[in-house]
Structures
1.
Amino acid sequence: METRTNEIADGIYRFSTYIERAGLVFNQYLVLAEQPLLFHCGLRGLFPLISTAMSGVLNPNRLRWISFGHVEADELGGMNEWLAAAPDAQVCFGSLGCAVSVNDLASRLPRPLEHGDALDLGGKIVRYLSTPHVPHGWDAGLFFEETTRTLLCGDLFTRLGEVPASTSDDIVAPAFEAEHQYLATALTPLTAPTIRRLTELDPVTLALMHGSAFGGDCRKALEELADGYEVRLNRQLADRP
Ligand SMILES: [Fe+2]
Ligand SMILES: [Fe+2]
């Protein structure tokens, strides 16, 4: 296995590992700034590979913030390894997720965030967006990096297979192929409106956890993703016995 490094937006680095058994890439994003932030810790077993890859860009002991989209092993499995490697680092995460899980799981107390909270990283600004149950988990949330207009969109648009670092090809149809296979999204009446609200950010890049970073028409892709989930929900409601 190999972890590849690519700068997918100015000062935003993607570390990507393809795991054949899962048939997916697993990405972590480093927002390089005076107070560098890592979004997604990666699986605990991948920490040596990912931290070595990061060393090519930044000494991991300089990390200041560590975060993830929701509580799952691929999101935060290596959290305590990163905290041990970076003595000044603190986890920042939604307040609900801190109260439910991360206050207990993390080896140092996390900083809780509310919807709309911004962290000025010095050269980069990330804003926390609470997205309960989107794509899954009541603790779910995302970050928007405002200077590059990069939406760190976690498991949204998850796509199967080994993929290039960046693309402007359609990411919606492949996302629904993966959805069909894994049923990973918690389909509720709030799924489509929550995704649709993300269009207001007018992102330039969508930084996927399982897929390429997308540099095409991000508003359109988010609209089409929301529409697709709305259709799925309505179909399931109509099919109810
Ligand atoms: Fe997930
Ligand atoms: Fe994931």
Note: The longest strand covers residues 12-19.
2.
Amino acid sequence: MHEARQYRKNEDGTVTCSLCNHRCTIKTGRHGICGVRKNEQGTLFAETYGKISAEAIDPIEKKPLFHYLPGTLSYSLGGIGCNFHCEHCQNWHISRATPDEARLRDLPPDEGVRRAVAGGCASISWTYNEPTIWHEYTLDMGTLARSKGLGTVYVTNGYITEDALRELAPMLGAYRVDIKSFSDAFYKKICGARLQPVLDSAILARELGMHIETVTLVIPGLNDDMEEISSLIRWVVEHLGPATPMHFSAFHPDYKMLDRGATPVATLEKIYQRAKELGLKYPYTGNVYSHQYENTYCPACGTILIERFGFSSRFVGLDDRQCKNCGEKIEVVRHVT
Ligand code: SF4
């Protein structure tokens, strides 16, 4: 087994993990909240290092990421476990699986990078379940991936600690973070977590030079209050910048949350308009097939820059990183540096 990073040994034989903001203190023989980090006789092990539950070559738009290597493929990997317990989880079959019962395959970091290159991918994404709890594995694979010119993507709930995020910074290119709500009560009740650490880590990711896009799944009656959503948008504009792409996605009933219907498209359109009014340059709707608000428009003249159908993209008005019509500089990562 692979010894964990980011933890402390205590005199009484427990260990304290500092990878995410739960900061679990774990007795010997027990796991942390995420279910994949185990204390064995005073040493913390990352049980799922090098073990995957899912592998696919996806358009990067599926993450969703619209301003990081748009129009390219991303080699996408998932493991098991999660440090959140969301009632509406769409990947509960892997996020709630345990190392004992899950069907996992071995994939060493160098083999993952080789497969990404062989598959014609421009990046590797750790996605499907929470990558923070796969820290050591993603760190090793990502460092190798960057040395081969690949981009690297975390699709994350953003509960990572400052120290762990700083450790990832030299290798992590894009931080696609869920801001599930702008209410701490929502985080406590629905996810078993807190809001503020998510916001703090997003600010740090930006300071560390990562590309950031946010996703908010808009759930009828739970986080769709326009005042609350307006506060979230204002926060992003102020702290992450007006050029941060924000995706507002439609909820569909799943897992333990079957007591309400899907998000009306009109709600997402209203949020999109509000985001524009509040100065956000690149709002998007999500989970609504081929909606016009999934296109990228020039924030200066309104020309369509990237037209999207499902997960495919057509570059119609973008000249590298400039609007072809008015010359406006567009905040988009086209190449890995
Ligand atoms: S990564 Fe897992 S063990 Fe570590 S603090 Fe978070 S939930 Fe606890």
Note: The first strand starts at residue 2 and ends at 3.
